[in-house]
Amino acid sequence: MSVNAEVLAIARTWIGTPYRHQGAVRGVGCDCLGLIRGIWRELYGQEPEPVPAYAPDWAERAGEERLVRAAERHFSSVPSFAESVSGDLVLFRFRPHLAAKHAGILALTPAERPSGVSHHERIGAGPGLDMHEPRPDAFIHAYEQSAVTLSALVPGWRRRIAGIYRFPERTS
């Protein structure tokens, strides 16, 4: 199974986890960064770097691209949405002049899957991901004041994409 398929399978197990600022525990509570941290821990065993405490308005106050810089350190950049696949990390910027502040995992809605083919089969078995797969039309994210959910990647979300990144393949 490809890392992208594993990421998506893990992310789906987080759906319903309540939103909790700075949380990162499946079933207990998480924010959008906590969701990504939890997926990373399940895949690789430990987080790639410590995450300091942060306020809900950290992006507005700091003005730095902390989320983008961290993604660039630990993930592979996907050049365009046309090259994205389910299981990729997606970052969002709520306003053009502000830092990226929200994260999720790209996905397909169940209705978009070709019949007779499992999602895991479609996204490939390794580095040569199936580029014939339909582009993601949804994403899994921690929705503030709610829970981890699968949301449609509607134009309002799509135009806020600040970057797309792929989880690294496991070495062992």
Could you characterize the architecture of this molecule?
With 172 residues, the chain is of the alpha+beta class. It has helices at residues 3-14, 32-44, 58-62, 66-74, 119-122, 155-158; strands spanning 24-25, 29-30, 76-77, 89-92, 102-107, 138-142, 148-152, 161-166. It is built from six helices and eight strands. A hairpin with a 5-residue loop joins strand 6 (138-142) and strand 7. It is globular. The relative contact order is 0.24.
Fraction of residues in helix = 25-40%
- Proportion of strand residues: 15-25%
| Average pLDDT for all residues | 87
Which oligomerization state do the chains in this entry correspond to? single chain
Total beta strands: 8
Strand order of the largest sheet: 3-8-4-5-6-7
> What structural category arises from helix and sheet content?
alpha+beta
Major sheet attributes: 6 strands, antiparallel
The termini sit apart by: 14 Å
What are the segments in which pLDDT stays under 50 over at least 5 consecutive residues?
A: 112-128
Shape: globular
Tell me the series of helices and strands, N- to C-terminal: HEEHHHEEEHEEHE
Rg to the nearest angstrom? 15 Å
